[in-house]
Amino acid sequence: MIGSRSLIALSLLLTLILAMAPLPSYVEAFRPDWVLLVLFYWAIALPHRINVGSAFVVGVLYDILLGNVLGLHALLLSLVVYIAAVNHLTIRNLSIWQQALIVAMVSAFYHLVDYWIQHFLTTVYFLPELLWPAVTNAFIWPWAFLLLRKYRRKLRIR
């Protein structure tokens, strides 16, 4: 039987693949942050399994796959998982729509800090389109949450 850690790692590997999947140019600005959503879910569902260290490792892999500044997503995903893990009891008790609002705020924070760091390292300019993924993440969260919860319960991931 496959262990819980392997199943969680498999879900994170799938999100890295989804993050790399090509999309049409008119949809690219709305690409959901699959890695952020799944890490956020695991951090509130199983904070003893997914922690800042695992988020850092996934973030480094994400940076390597994207060819981005090494450590950028590692830092940002670590911050997001820290926020989720510290507040996991509170977030769990909220309705799914309130959780979606929190996901949108955390995602907006993620993208704004990403822009801020890249602005100092390169010549990136702020465009309002940078925040569209936060809206997309909020709309996708309820279905991602329910799908991942079903996956966790059916496979008895603890």
Automatic annotation (TrEMBL):
<comment type="function">
    <text>Involved in formation of the rod shape of the cell. May also contribute to regulation of formation of penicillin-binding proteins.</text>
</comment>
<dbReference type="GO" id="GO:0008360">
    <property type="term" value="P:regulation of cell shape"/>
</dbReference>
<keyword id="KW-0997">Cell inner membrane</keyword>
<keyword id="KW-0812">Transmembrane</keyword>
<feature type="transmembrane region" description="Helical">
    <location>
        <begin position="53"/>
        <end position="84"/>
    </location>
</feature>
<keyword id="KW-0133">Cell shape</keyword>
<keyword id="KW-1133">Transmembrane helix</keyword>
<feature type="transmembrane region" description="Helical">
    <location>
        <begin position="130"/>
        <end position="148"/>
    </location>
</feature>
<dbReference type="InterPro" id="IPR026034">
    <property type="entry name" value="MreD_proteobac"/>
</dbReference>
<keyword id="KW-1003">Cell membrane</keyword>
<dbReference type="GO" id="GO:0005886">
    <property type="term" value="C:plasma membrane"/>
</dbReference>
<dbReference type="Pfam" id="PF04093">
    <property type="entry name" value="MreD"/>
</dbReference>
<comment type="similarity">
    <text>Belongs to the MreD family.</text>
</comment>
<feature type="transmembrane region" description="Helical">
    <location>
        <begin position="96"/>
        <end position="118"/>
    </location>
</feature>
<protein>
    <recommendedName>
        <fullName>Rod shape-determining protein MreD</fullName>
    </recommendedName>
</protein>
<dbReference type="InterPro" id="IPR007227">
    <property type="entry name" value="Cell_shape_determining_MreD"/>
</dbReference>
<keyword id="KW-0472">Membrane</keyword>
